[in-house]
Amino acid sequence: MKNILIINATYRRGGNSEALALQFKKGAEEACNAVNLISLREIDLKFCIGCLSCQKTGKCVLKDSMNELLPVVRNADVIVLATPVYYYSMSGQLKTFLDRLNPLYGQDNKFKEFYLLATAADTEKSAMDGTVKGVQGFIDCFEGVKLSGVVCGVGADAIGTVQNSAAFAEAYEMGKSVQ
Fold it and tell me: Exposed, middle or buried: residue 58 (CB in 10 Å: 0-12, 13-18, 19+)?
């Protein structure tokens, strides 16, 4: 059994990336994993101010939800990032969240695997390249951590359209495969 943390980075309730996150969660729970899903729209999340105090203290000086979430992220075996793709990149909410994980850099973190669930109105998978590259760049900063899988929900131009795509089934199967 693995401890899986899913970060839902859409602010749209019932949005396509949230639908993929819920499918991944369903599959992962059926595979007897412990799954925690956090929606960024439900937490207080400020922008990183670049002071780097966190590199000395392991905590952020900003007073918001991140200091409570850092141990949750640090102790997850697997982290799943679910994001809509805006202008060929991850959502600003996800980028802000990743920036705020700076206190984990150089620490003894449990996570070794990341998965990415991304949706876009564009019908070409290449529309996800910037998002994948950005997430990979973040992951590369952590020794021994890898991007284990990516689901691209393309053509998701309205709420619910991803449910009629191959990506919907892929997210479930990917979640189920985490062991």
Answer: middle
